[in-house]
């Protein structure tokens, strides 16, 4: 029985995730597919409003607490994602649990180098990963890779808590070390593909479509069901 595909866009802030994910939605709909577009964090839910205030610097949260709130925000949508996939609706996500893991662990790395003493409970990769175990696993994750210099030149950069150069450097490092070359977390969670987001809009869109098409054919050919995210 046909099912929808779960496609995730990841990357640093201002890498073009929102624009490219919406372009993909338009292209899939033009091809006759039913598509649901979602963005994380979803700031419209009660949990999402807490996250929104934190990201805008209007409130503070313990690092462990805010990480769990981000994860809970994704769990709020889990049943919706599952039901749409089962109904043969493809779900396109602008950020997912990769961002939650990468940003929290990057923040932990920054704290360990700037503080004279280590935090009482370090935010390890395993700790950051565990709350999201069991969420729907992506069929394809597209990492829009952009240099920090180019990101800083794009409009609106620096307006929220995590849009700081040192933080973005660490986030890019975590993405690269764990999901783009070290370990099997990316393979466990869904195929992870790097896309050069520094190219022109149309070139990036074409590369995205090529990877989506290849994934689509593979899922259809092999009859893969919807998986769940697992730890190593």
From TrEMBL:
Pathway: Pyrimidine metabolism; dTTP biosynthesis. The keyword Kinase applies. GO terms for biological process: dTDP biosynthetic process; dTTP biosynthetic process; dUDP biosynthetic process. Residues 9-208 form the Thymidylate kinase-like domain. The keyword Kinase applies. Keywords: ATP-binding, Hydrolase, Kinase, Nucleotide biosynthesis, Nucleotide-binding, Transferase. One of its GO terms (cellular component) is cytosol. It is an enzyme of class 2 (transferase). GO terms for molecular function: ATP binding; dTMP kinase activity; hydrolase activity; nucleoside diphosphate kinase activity. InterPro entries: P-loop_NTPase, Thymidylate_kin-like_dom, Thymidylate_kinase. Its EC number is 2.7.4.9. This is Thymidylate kinase.
């Amino acid at each position: 029985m046909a099912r929808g595909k779960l496609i995730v866009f990841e990357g640093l802030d201002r890498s073009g995730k929102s624009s490219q994910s919406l372009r993909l939605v338009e292209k899939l709909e033009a091809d006759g597919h039913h598509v649901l577009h979602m963005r994380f964090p979803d700031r419209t839910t009660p949990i999402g409003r807490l996250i929104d205030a934190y990201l805008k610097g209007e409130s503070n949260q313990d690092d462990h607490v805010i990480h769990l709130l981000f994860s809970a925000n994704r769990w709020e949508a889990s049943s919706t994602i599952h039901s749409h996939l089962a109904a043969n609706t493809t779900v396109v996500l602008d950020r997912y649990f990769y961002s939650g893991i990468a940003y929290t662990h990057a923040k932990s790395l920054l704290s360990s180098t700037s503080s004279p003493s280590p935090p009482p409970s370090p935010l390890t990769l395993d700790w950051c990963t565990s709350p999201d175990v069991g969420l729907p696993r992506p069929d394809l994750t597209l990492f829009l890779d952009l240099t920090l210099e180019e990101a800083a030149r794009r409009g609106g950069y620096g307006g929220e808590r995590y849009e700081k150069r040192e933080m973005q450097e660490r986030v890019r490092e975590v993405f690269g070390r764990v999901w783009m070359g070290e370990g099997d977390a990316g393979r466990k969670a869904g195929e992870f593909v790097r896309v050069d987001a520094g190219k022109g809009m149309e070139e990036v869109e074409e590369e995205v479509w090529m990877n989506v098409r290849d994934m689509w054919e593979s899922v259809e050919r092999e009859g893969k069901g919807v998986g769940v995210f697992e730890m190593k």
